[in-house]
Amino acid sequence: MKRFVALARVSSREQEREGFSLEVQEDALRHYAELQGGEIVRFFRIAETASKSDERKTFKELVRYAKKHCLEIDGLLFYKLDRAARNLYDYVELERLESEYNVPFISVAQPTDSNPAGRMMRRTLANMASFYTEQQSVDVREGLARRVQEGWFIGLAPYGYKNVRKNGRGIVEVHRRNGKTVKRIFELFAFHSLTLDQLAEKLHEEGLIYRDSTHKFPRSSLHNMLRDRAYIGEIEHKGNWYPGKHEPLVDRATWDRVQTILGGHVYQSHELTYAGDRIKCGHCGHRITGEVKTKQTKAGPKRYIYYRCTYYNKGDHPRIRVREADFDSQVMAILTKMKIEDEGVQEWFRTVLASKTRDTQLDSLSQRHELQRQETLIVGQQDRLLNMRLAEEIDESTFAAKQTELRDRLSNMKLQLDVLDRSHDEYADLASRIFELSQSLTSKWLTADVMEKRQILDIVFLNCVLDDVTLVPTIRKPFDVLAEGLISKNSRGD
pTM score, two decimals? Predict the structure, then answer.
């Protein structure tokens, strides 16, 4: 009895409808084996859902099996040649099996003789199959590119949207629940001074879930969502972004604010009030960094925050670590000295703050003129870029990439102009609020959140040095007057 090895392959639903399903192929292959007085000893199958790697894995397994059992089998059975080899490389492997291992190649629906004319016919069919596969790939890529350029998604919609079909066409709509969640995510991160970990906790507290199977948002997923331009109405394709037809979930001002925050690397370290470049080591001048230690206590795990020099472990550097609570106490002691009881002096100090903000007005005006000049240049660049594309001087990919870059730069210019328009009044108001806060800060400091504390430090302190375990700040004017004391030994007592 003859022994055969067979391969059945179907790669699309269209082929299945046309009569090339796995079942049809298997029946035809088994029928052929029976007519030859034999049987199929090993059947390999490649389904339409198989990935390219799975297809390659199955085909290579077939070749290995045929080589190993070449003396035991009488041929390789395929329904048609394009079911056996999707490219010329695969076909060469099959011819080698026939010429070097004496394993005949048999196409039951396209029989050919094992002679030069038959081999030429098979190679012609293999070329046609390879051409069809390559051309189909080109057609699919071009079709997907056209769909993106028209403003439609080509795959699964991002979180916050859902894929639906209307009038026979796949489109994207806002998901009723998840769309609101996306808006809340951007709002919290942009305006509530939260880190990614704090954002995940806040969403969990508010009962907003990621998926039914995973309620809490993973940190990495939040970061990816905050970077996804789909939420401002764009679609990504091959690294470029195109205007989409779906409804944006986030306005451009909020998006730009989030990107600015993310660009500043708002990660776990920013949960530490004194981390970053805020404090320098008095011994070596390097940056003081923070670290979180968790210790097991009778009441359960307890979190401690320490600060030390980044060169803590180098050579003979002092092994000094300072608890965050000690820094808080020292800052509170400094701020406590700023309290003023005299109402007349309080009014004088407010007048000084207002005067200093007026001095920055001319600088702001100059910055505004420069930003407006740059904005005009970018608009001109956009016009020239469009003309170059219309004249086919640049390709679509280059145009899309440059268009996205110019669009972002223009948006950033408008954001900076908006910030300048409001910065004068906001800074004066913030400085005034900080002054008012300084008058009762001892009772408020420990209950303030991390970002509020960091804002206070930025406004009051110019820089800080850690001398042994003592925080030595250089205080900004005019807060230095309050910290040093309003009455000096050289005054007349008034």
Answer: 0.42
